[in-house]
Give the backbone structure.
Amino acid sequence: MAALMIQGCGSDVGKSVLVAGLCRVFANRGLKVRPFKPQNMSNNAAVTAPDAEGRVGEIGRAQALQALACRTAPTVDMNPVLLKPQSDVGAQLVVRGRVEGTWKAAAYQDRKASLLQVVLDSFERLRAEADIVVVEGAGSPAEINLRAGDIANMGFARAADVPVVLVGDIDRGHVIAALVGARAVLDEDDRAMIKGFLINKFRGDPDLFNEGRAEIVRRTGWADLGMAPWLSDARALPAEDTVVLDGGVRSGGGRVRIAVPMLSRIANFDDFDPLRHEPGVDFGFVPPGQALPGNADLIILPGTKATLADLAFLRTQGWDVDIAAHVRRGGRVLGVCGGYQMLGRTISDPDGVEGVAGSAAGLGLLDVETLLAGDKTLRRMGGRLSPSGAVFDGYEIHIGRTDGPATARPVAEIEDRPHGARSADGRIAGLYVHGLFDRAEARGALLGELGAVSDGTDQSVRVDQALDRIAAVLESRFDIPALARIAGLT
């Protein structure tokens, strides 16, 4: 069966978007397509569809998006190894959707080689059910200091015998050096896996870079497979890397102002993508070092991979003071997942499941307490908001249980059971549901409480339309027949 691997000259060169676009290109041809990423590192995760035994797991958000591009349900085989950073030197390891402990960076370098067979087994399962598998690399194969035991780039490509196309990001301004330099540092066998290159994120007249592309061909011997323009429709797709937040993700012009503090281990921040597209909303992530806006109508505390650590981080930024002042002024606060846990009286982690064992006082805005213990909750679900009855779809992905008197005032009903907690005056609320804003009905009900009107577009529709537009651009700018031949389709 056919397969093609898209690797990049670095992180954030657009690999995830290009793979999603190519998945949709091939799916539009009537092919059965599957995405695959051997190893991913991200705190933006998605819950998969149940497997043959009814179990669900978690994978990187980008692979769930790519599954949507293929018009198929996400499975754990699409991202068999997921690392979720909990600190600067440690990460939770998820293998085929299930947590397998926390590893320090140095120790994981020794561990990862043993995961190659897991990766290959998942890849073979996908290849057996598909006409073509489109594989995404991680980081860059030119990081030759990480080559020993590699399972994410050339280590996988060679073990599975999958041809590689290398992507360079021209927006960074050194794409010739990046591509030619990658060839220079790769060993001969790794270099032989690369069959061509793609240029991404070009702005302006593409003819102005014809000589540059010819020079890359001359210096590398690789085929020039095309150049994509800056894909503005990528803004409609859920991001996986927090690098997109570094420039400050903001939408303006709306009357209702919503602010989200950028926690150090923020997770699943794509929850708020639908709010960025609402014309009646002025939405913004607030970076460290800045105060939360005093004129916000709603502050949302997002999910986090390390609740206690990020609660301490929130306090070092002075955001706890800003939130208290916001509440005194009559403002509203919503906590999602880890943010929900922070709103309570206490958070306890007796076994150190998210890092160092300990406990801390929460923000005290909800009369609940959280115990971080037990198995991770992973489930896709639908429900209704209380009291509006508005329908939502979403998923839970968290460790811990939250209980207390405030849960008698639930935020939602899921499978005929109350969920979440609300303050007596209704201005403070928290729940574990990710994807809460995706459906227009639920988003409209929540915005209605703030005096805003939703545009009425489901996020799934917005994303699907963006994928079609991206695929149409790639069809016109990439040599799709050549990519198909490299993959082994023809």
Remarks:
- The chain is about 30% helix and 30% strand.
